[in-house]
Write a structure and sequence with these properties.
The protein is an all-beta fold. 0% of the residues lie in helices and 51% in strands. The strands form two sheets. Strands 2, 4, 5, 6, 9, 10 and 11 form a seven-stranded mixed β-sheet that branches. A four-stranded antiparallel β-sheet has the order 1-3-8-7, with no helix packed on it. It starts with a strand and ends with a strand.
Amino acid sequence: QVQLVESGGDLVQVGESLRLACVAIGASSRLNIMAWYRQTPGNERESVATYTHDGRVRYGESVKDRFTLSRDLTPNSIVLQMNNLRSEDTGRYFCNTPPVYWGQGTQVTVSS
């Protein structure tokens, strides 16, 4: 059983930055595919950034050039650096790894 724990959500102003972290606990091997999703008000959950099986990173269109996904030194941990935040980035951010593991999420609120 894999448990995903997110952290780093906060209330910030437009244009500021946040760093979200996700650690996978209980994995018996390296998790090649790890991702961030978000649920924004009135919208379905959407993909934000994903480490694909071949090590590449895929970003959602609305976050390209502002968000950066990287692996932390801690095994099976990923970090999402979010810069130049916009009010529409407000939402709950979830960590995910296949097949069905999700964290509880961390709330990001961007105030104008």
